Amino acid sequence: MIKVLLADDSAFMRKVISDIIGQFNNVEVIKIVRNGALAVAAVENESFDVVILDVEMPVMDGINALKAIKNIQDVPVIMLSALNNQALTIAALEYGAFDFIEKPINLHQIDPLWLTMFEEQIIASTDNHDAHLGQKDPRTIYTDTQQNISPEIIVIGASTGGPKALLQLIQALPAKIKIPILIVQHMPKGFTTHFANRLNEFTTNRVYEAADGMVIENAVYLAPGDFHMELSGGRIKLNSKPKMHGTRPAVDYLFKSVASQYGQRVTAFLLTGMGHDGADGMAQIKQHGGYNIVQDEATCVVYGMPKSAVALNVVDEELSLTAIGAKLNQFVGA
């Protein structure tokens, strides 16, 4: 049984979220508190498998509670976010939150996809925590460095754990990249705006939240929430096609779009994330002669997406996040 600590200042929201979690298999809310300070005290005195924190609470907010909890023990923390605290939510991911989920807007008719995602987040947070105990050192599992790779475009896909990984990669980029980088990070509308702005603070290269019709230059482009991102004729094309793998944007839309257009001139990176988004796209990139690199299990927050690509036998290299950074800089540097 997964033991959950829930912290939210709204009595109504505490009841709603607790009742929802009570419907999940093998998950139980064993303690409920109304602010971050009480959550920290609970973690000091009791054992939990996962902590769920509201971002904004009195006495101690979710961000400071997250920091304090992480100093006590490495328990997974999922943030409950609202539309008015998107920037704080992005900050929480930097401070070590496992993931976040938007509070449901219509509490009387909650989207089944939201319920599924929330349950999967809780389960994945504990599965990942157990899997990574005693496995902290980055390692290269598989490499194929015989090819002379000179891509003209880089595409990156990520989900759970992706924001922190992407911040690390973008911060380490050369002062001026020589080819464009396009990124799909699973993230809702609005949050991607704040995340693009945050990435932009970490590099001298320009980071854009992509807009429809943008001409691709030597810059970094992040797919906006609630839109799939594709390429056509050197321009970004956004669309509202149905969700894929339960998400929009989906990595597969971007990967498949560049596969046929760029062939062997594209290199794809698939980072940490739940599910299998990006694997089919990597298969098409491989089929058209492109090059695929995934993040290794040891440095992933969740190994789901990279593992799915490995299972399809379409991966050229599987590397630690640090090694991915070095490889990325090799491709985009002058």
UniProtKB/TrEMBL annotation:
Q: Name one GO biological process term.
A: chemotaxis
PTM annotation, UniProt:
Phosphorylated by CheA. Phosphorylation of the N-terminal regulatory domain activates the methylesterase activity.
Question: What's its EC?
Answer: 3.1.1.61, 3.5.1.44
Q: Which residues form the active site?
A: S159, H186, D277
Q: Please list the residue ranges annotated as the CheB-type methylesterase domain.
A: 147-334
GO MF annotation: an example? methyltransferase activity
* Protein name as it appears in the record: Protein-glutamate methylesterase/protein-glutamine glutaminase
* Protein family per UniProt: Belongs to the CheB family.
Q: Which gene encodes it?
A: cheB
Which keywords label this protein?
Answer: Chemotaxis, Cytoplasm, Hydrolase, Methyltransferase, Phosphoprotein, Transferase
Domain comment, in the record's words? Contains a C-terminal catalytic domain, and an N-terminal region which modulates catalytic activity.
Under the heading InterPro entries, the entry gives:
CheB-like, CheB_C, CheY-like_superfamily, Sig_transdc_resp-reg_Me-estase, Sig_transdc_resp-reg_receiver
Keyword Membrane, does the record have it? no
* Record-annotated Response regulatory domain positions: 3-118
In which organism is this protein found? Periweissella fabalis
Please describe what this protein does.
Answer: Involved in chemotaxis. Part of a chemotaxis signal transduction system that modulates chemotaxis in response to various stimuli. Catalyzes the demethylation of specific methylglutamate residues introduced into the chemoreceptors (methyl-accepting chemotaxis proteins or MCP) by CheR. Also mediates the irreversible deamidation of specific glutamine residues to glutamic acid.
Q: Which reaction does it catalyse?
A: L-glutaminyl-[protein] + H2O = L-glutamyl-[protein] + NH4(+); [protein]-L-glutamate 5-O-methyl ester + H2O = L-glutamyl-[protein] + methanol + H(+)
Q: Where located?
A: Cytoplasm
PTM annotation (4-aspartylphosphate): residues: D54
UniProt GO cellular component terms: cytoplasm
Where it mainly occurs, coarsely classed, is cytoplasm
